[in-house]
């Protein structure tokens, strides 16, 4: 039995599923003890978060053909799911019956959750970052963009509790979150102009293709209806807007992309929950590239999961480094603890 892989499922259960997905919580603990299912899960590509990928693959196949008894435990397949504590035997049966299809998905698909609610913390992050610079249009470059939905953070409206909303008041996409502690005053500032919306991903998701949109939905946990509804709203909004989405390794391509953008725009490089899928060596190389770029022109870098989980800003203004921890956040942006800033 793969002890390290089993430990990944246990950590996934305790750190990510305990409060958000009773089904995945129970199944993760059972998978950690089952050599056969762990062996199937091991076919995931190197660097991928295996629990997320396995559950997404099962979810994708089950929603497409919900005839198996496992559907009785999934809130996406029935109105009143059965007790998640009883799901393991039918889950294992499903995995064994669909083994070949699951292995194919594990080998070809990626965890690319386009978590639109993360725009709830990107929204104030960009406002704070741009305070350090003169007024210029922003050239957005998102690494690990998936379907590019988080390139549209200025096209959504936001509620952080109470009746007041922020952002684009005409947007049909309403993102809800909550601040723990003080709400930053910068939320009321005017929206900046955007000159470029460039997204890069190893496998760009085309939401106009039903199978691709279905994969994004499958990555969302069955009980999380609100996340799925928000995704669908953002997909509808995205259909009427132009994005520049590119296939490739954004961490390696950054210099090439930056060469296309004149200094009339302020470079804004950002990524959320993707750096944990690259090695420490690649992280360091990428940060060195940004440092070199920062000696040549102004830029903003907003990120998490490099060196620490905190949402963070590093920027270069006139070659000088600005380094600011921004917030502690929930992984799905259900809450934001905005840190004090001078």
Structure report:
With 342 residues, the chain is of the alpha/beta class. The chain contains 11 helices and 11 strands. The strands form 2 sheets. Strands 6-5-1-7-8-9-10-11 form an 8-stranded mixed β-sheet, sandwiched between helices. Helix 4 packs across helix 6 and helix 10 (250-258) runs parallel beside helix 11 (280-294). The protein is globular and about 60 Å long.
Show the helix and strand layout:
Elements: H1 3-17, H2 22-31, H3 35-41, H4 50-64, H5 88-97, H6 99-108, H7 119-130, E1 138-143, E2 157-159, E3 166-167, E4 174-176, E5 194-201, H8 210-218, H9 225-238, E6 244-247, H10 250-258, E7 266-271, H11 280-294, E8 299-303, E9 311-317, E10 320-329, E11 336-338
Parallel strand pairs: 1-5, 1-7, 2-4, 5-6, 7-8
Antiparallel strand pairs: 2-3, 8-9, 9-10, 10-11
Helix pairs in contact: 1-2, 4-6, 4-8, 10-11
Oligomer: single chain
Characterize the biggest β-sheet.
8 strands, mixed
Estimate percent helicity.
Answer: 25-40%
Strand neighbour order, sheet with most strands: 6-5-1-7-8-9-10-11
Give the overall form: globular
Write a concise keyword list for the protein shown above.
342 residues, alpha/beta, eight-stranded mixed β-sheet, 11 strands
In a nutshell, what does this entry contain?
The protein has 342 residues and is α/β, with parallel strands linked by helices. It is 37% helix and 17% strand. It has helices at 3-17, 22-31, 35-41, 50-64, 88-97, 99-108, 119-130, 210-218, 225-238, 250-258, 280-294, and strands at residues 138-143, 157-159, 166-167, 174-176, 194-201, 244-247, 266-271, 299-303, 311-317, 320-329, 336-338.
